[in-house]
């Protein structure tokens, strides 16, 4: 999808300067290396370099192993491969430890809340945009590529800043601004038949393994992945002891799920495991589960009177069962190949712990609701009975009418809560990485203490009757957080290569011939042509036998220069005024002639402009471009298989300037 082309002629440069002077996200969010987050990013980058070195050694050893037939050499190489693979495993575990605990700060909360799973950003290597862009600008657009060094340097600075974005709104805007610039680059320089030729190198977020691809779509997909990952980091560090922090956390996880969903739907050929459809689906499920957990925490923070009472407690039980069901789904997905091969073990364990923990919480709140001493109204019975699930062998359970029977059933639910919380603590103790998470242990221990206290209270009323088996709690939520697509349109950017002209005409997808400069003098009937449209202005008609016809100008030519002044972004009135002010010396014009699909550029005074597909504007169904203030059309987000179809409405024919 191509961002809105906001450039509008001579004022576009002033607009870009105004945005930069105002402190836009383009260059202001790169973090210092001595900051905590910058230090972690540097450690991660060093681990990636070590992984890359080990992979090169492994590749060389594998080639030697396949090439030799000497048994002793093969044995030596096999030992070397074993050492390299062991080193790689240790490096990947170290990287997983950084992503699991060090990539985001502990939640800024005085209360005790369970930790969330943030996703580490994909790392990348520096990229030299200058050679391919300069060559393409020279060959296709017919301009001096060296004159665009400032624009190329601005693009490189923007990409460099996105390697360490701040975990805030400014960091998200920085990544979004770069993503929008990539949309401009794709629309202007990339064709279906040819890429830029750059090798984009990114490291897998889950395994640290390098991946390379020459498609600009890989760069866009990796940036979109980092937008989703940064949302997870922002959501994980929110203060969830207050409603405002919970609301921000829910939105962050929703945005992350939307980013991964969008990437999964548009990026089908993944060069790295973290961007495969299976991984993205797992990440989408994980972020939805974490958002649902925040919804449950928000209900617990409501006014004390709102969470008391039978119906309120049973609603909390169903909400907790919903969270548990979603975490069980995530755990099943993580345990299946090939995801289980590269998902960090602490993630899988934490998800399993939370599934057990929230299932125990569901039984705990169900017990509180059943042990409420208030009588049950007849209108409440249908609602209450829908809370519990029967086993496959038994029929739907009936809610006991007597207070004593309800208390027995509540005690049975407390037993299941105690068993589940003990199972969660055992799973927590089995993972060395999770044992260092004091917050998680505090949450699990607190839940166990509450259940034990309530069980002891009910045990005083024990009449030695055996309680019935507690049924499962029906998962249900009153607020299901759906994935939300990142808001790309809220970050407005100006096309860095705006000087090349409007994208609807001056892109690698279209071909034209540059004619001129052609010198024209005013005749008795003027210059012999009429003009139409804006940005760029085109020649609508050429008078036969007139000065324009003699100079070789044709209907449909775009005027790109008037007396040496670039006018690709000029309005119709500006070009007419410039021509009307021409004296006896005449004027020099340079025009761009669109080429039919089957016609190649020729040499001579019409300089060739090489590109991808040879398509004239008429063959693409486009009319004369409109001013840039016109409402933009919807744009594809990733643009792997979408063609540019941005048309512009025509203007009324204007007479040629008269003498």
UniProtKB/TrEMBL annotation:
PDZ domain ranges (all copies): 517-584
Keyword Calcium on entry: no
Composition-biased stretches (Basic and acidic residues): 1-18
Compositionally skewed regions (Polar residues) per UniProt: 475-486
BRO1 domain ranges (all copies): 115-461
Family membership: Belongs to the RHPN family.
Designated name of the protein: Rhophilin, Rho GTPase binding protein 1
Superkingdom: Eukaryota
InterPro entries: BRO1_dom (IPR004328), BRO1_sf (IPR038499), HR1_rho-bd (IPR011072), HR1_rpt_sf (IPR036274), PDZ (IPR001478), PDZ_sf (IPR036034), RHPN1_2 (IPR047138)
TM segment ranges: none
PROSITE patterns noted in UniProt: BRO1, PDZ, REM_1
Lineage summary: Eukaryota, Metazoa, Chordata, Craniata, Vertebrata
CDD domains linked: PDZ_rhophilin-like
């Amino acid at each position: 999808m191509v961002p809105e082309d906001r450039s509008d002629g001579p004022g576009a440069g002033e607009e870009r300067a105004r945005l930069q002077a105002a402190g836009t996200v383009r260059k202001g969010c790169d973090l210092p290396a001595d900051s905590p987050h910058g230090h972690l990013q540097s450690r991660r980058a060093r681990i990636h370099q070590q992984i890359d070195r080990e992979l090169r050694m492994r590749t060389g050893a594998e080639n030697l192993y396949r090439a030799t037939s000497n048994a002793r050499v093969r044995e030596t190489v096999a030992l070397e491969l074993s050492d390299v693979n062991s080193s790689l495993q240790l490096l990947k575990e170290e990287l997983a430890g950084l992503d699991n605990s060090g990539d985001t700060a502990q939640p800024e909360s005085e209360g005790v809340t369970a930790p969330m799973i943030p996703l580490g950003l994909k790392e990348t290597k520096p990229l030299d945009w200058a050679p391919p862009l300069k060559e393409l600008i020279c060959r296709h657009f017919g301009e001096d590529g060296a004159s665009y060094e400032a624009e190329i340097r601005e693009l490189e600075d923007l990409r460099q800043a996105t390697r360490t974005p701040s975990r805030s709104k400014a960091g998200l805007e920085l990544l979004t601004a770069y993503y929008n610039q990539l949309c401009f680059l794709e629309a202007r320089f990339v064709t279906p038949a040819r890429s830029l030729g750059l090798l984009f190198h990114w490291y897998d977020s889950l395994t640290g393994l390098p991946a390379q691809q020459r498609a600009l779509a890989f760069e866009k997909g990796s940036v979109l992945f980092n937008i989703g990952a940064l949302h997870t980091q922002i959501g994980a560090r929110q203060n969830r002891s207050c409603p405002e922090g919970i609301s921000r956390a829910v939105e962050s996880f929703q945005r992350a799920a939307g980013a991964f969903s969008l990437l999964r739907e548009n990026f089908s050929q993944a060069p790295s495991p973290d961007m495969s459809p299976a991984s993205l689906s797992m990440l989408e499920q994980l972020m939805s589960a974490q958002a649902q957990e925040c919804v449950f925490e928000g209900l617990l923070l409501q006014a004390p009177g709102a969470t008391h009472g039978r119906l309120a407690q049973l609603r909390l039980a169903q909400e907790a069962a919903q969270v548990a069901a979603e975490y069980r789904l995530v755990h099943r997905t993580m345990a299946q190949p090939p995801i289980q091969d590269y998902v960090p073990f602490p993630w899988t364990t934490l998800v399993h712990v939370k599934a057990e923990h929230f299932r125990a919480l569901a039984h705990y709140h169900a017990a509180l609701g059943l042990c409420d001493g208030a009588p049950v109204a007849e209108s409440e019975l249908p609602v209450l009975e829908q809370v519990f699930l029967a086993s496959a062998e038994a029929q739907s359970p009936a809610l006991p009418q007597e207070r004593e029977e309800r208390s027995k059933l509540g005690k049975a639910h407390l037993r299941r809560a105690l068993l589940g919380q003990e199972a969660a603590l055992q799973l927590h103790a089995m993972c060395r990485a999770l044992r260092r998470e004091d917050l998680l242990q505090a949450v699990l221990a607190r839940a166990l203490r509450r259940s034990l206290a309530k069980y002891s209270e009910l045990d005083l009323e024990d009449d030695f009757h055996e309680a019935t088996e507690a049924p499962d709690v029906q998962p249900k939520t009153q607020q299901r957080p759906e994935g939300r697509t990142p808001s790309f349109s809220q970050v407005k950017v100006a096309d860095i290569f705006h000087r090349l002209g409007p994208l609807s005409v001056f892109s690698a997808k279209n071909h034209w011939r540059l004619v001129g400069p052609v010198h024209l003098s005013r005749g008795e009937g003027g210059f012999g042509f009429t003009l139409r449209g804006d940005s760029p202005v085109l020649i609508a008609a050429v008078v036969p036998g007139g000065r324009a016809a003699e100079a070789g100008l044709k209907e449909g030519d775009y005027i790109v220069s008037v007396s040496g002044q670039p006018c690709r972004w000029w309005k119709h009135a500006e070009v007419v005024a410039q021509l009307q002010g021409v004296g006896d010396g005449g004027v020099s014009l340079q025009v761009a002639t669109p080429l039919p699909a089957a016609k190649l550029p020729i040499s001579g005074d019409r300089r060739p402009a090489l590109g991808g597909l040879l398509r004239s504007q008429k063959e693409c169904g486009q009319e004369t471009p409109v001013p840039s203030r016109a409402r933009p059309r919807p744009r594809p987000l990733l643009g792997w298989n979408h063609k540019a179809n941005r048309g512009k409405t025509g203007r009324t024919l204007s007479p040629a300037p008269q003498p």
